[in-house]
Structure formats: structure tokens, C-alpha cells
Amino acid sequence: LERVRVLHELREEEDTSHKYIDERLNYIRSTADSLSIIGISGIGKTTAIERLLLMYPQVIKHEEYKGQPFNRTQIVWLKIDCPYDGSLSTLCKSFFKA
């Protein structure tokens, strides 16, 4: 519950000062390649992740790079739910479908 309270406070502060939050969170750094969120059903794991992802644009369309035309589309994030059957095949199909 303490973490939830802190997250709510940070969200409220974000509306008033992005710089202040950046300074407070500056010490949080990780070299991890992955993340796991584990918890009982209904506590808001999916909602929290979706709200976090929505803080970033999902797609960036690039038109220029170093003064030269550069027509590329960058996918910043892609949310894929765990496959219902736990198989790698279903995960890959979900990835390409998304």
C-alpha cells in the first residue's frame, strides 16, 4: 500500500512539475532486460502497465535525419498478453498479429 501511495503522489506531482519527478527518480537505473509483475487477480497489474505505456507514444513517424529525408516508422512499445496456453508458438503469433 505504501508503494501505491507513493505512485499516486508522483502522478499528482507529475502534473505540476516533470522536472521535479525526474530529479527524484534519477537514482532509479537498471540494466535489466525484462520485468515480471506478479500478484493476485484484480489488483490492477494490467491497468498499471497500460497506464505506464500510455505515457509514451506508441508510434513515432520519422521524416528527417541529419537534414536528409528519412521516412521510417518506429514502434516504441508493443503490449502482448501472455498466451493462454503458455506456448512459444502462440506468443509468436500474438507478436506478429499485434
Automatic annotation (TrEMBL):
InterPro entries: AAA_22 (IPR049945). Residues 29-97 form the ORC1/DEAH AAA+ ATPase domain. Coiled coil: none annotated. Signal peptide: none annotated. Pfam families: AAA_22. Keywords: ATP-binding, Nucleotide-binding. GO terms for molecular function: ATP binding; ATP hydrolysis activity. The keyword ATP-binding applies. This is ATP-binding protein. It comes from Alkalihalophilus pseudofirmus.
